Amino acid sequence: MRPLGHGYLRLDVAGRRATQCENEIRQLAHREGIELGMVFHERQGATAALVALIAELRRSTSRHVLAPTANHLVGPAMPDRAFEARLWGEARARVIFAHPAAAADNLMPSSRPRVQPENYPEPLSELQLATTTTAVSMAEMHARMTLSRWGLNELAEVTEQIMTELVTEALKATGIAYPHHRLHEAAPLKLLTARIRRTQHSLVIEVVDDRPIEADSEIRLGFNQRVAALSHRYGRFRNSDNTVTTWCELATASRTVSPIWGI
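User: That's the sequence. What structure does it adopt?
Assistant: Structure tokens below.
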């Protein structure tokens, strides 16, 4: 049985191409093996179709929303990434684009995603989080949204699993790892960075944290073997500012796991 999904498009973005955009959604559903339900049409400056879409997603337990490009998710009533964040937060649904390249390149200038710093020629997306238990769910959402934007939906599940493991391990080393801890009783919170980089032949998932320097011997022993099993290569190194970066690389072909330690 094929999974159920629903379409979404904005009429002010589609213009005279509304019928063509809806056909693109139908073709995308066919390519992805998704049973297309309803296609919701949003009018300019409104969110009524989005509200109805979320209600239908929750009613039908569907987890897929199909759209022509990311332009259909950005507007005066819905800033960049707010649409995807709301879908994930309220219905645990992800967005698949018919034209992923257009999703990254054709956004309005004011809504263009903040991508890599100058040191990274390849696409990069990162999110800084406080070291509390909520960091795990936020990092998961960040991973799924990023891969959806890049058109790498086939890697979304394993990337999310790796990100979950890395952030959880970082929390145990630096932050509040257990929900029964009270924030007002905790030491000043630190920050961690969840980062995803795309190279020509691979995807790299990184988590940067500020674990104590004296825990050097524990860093190696605590590396999660579940991550190693999912990764093509993995490793850990200390940065010049004494933070620690744990990274994993995903490749499309099955290869021997190669640990590379830099500490």
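The chain has nine helices and ten strands.
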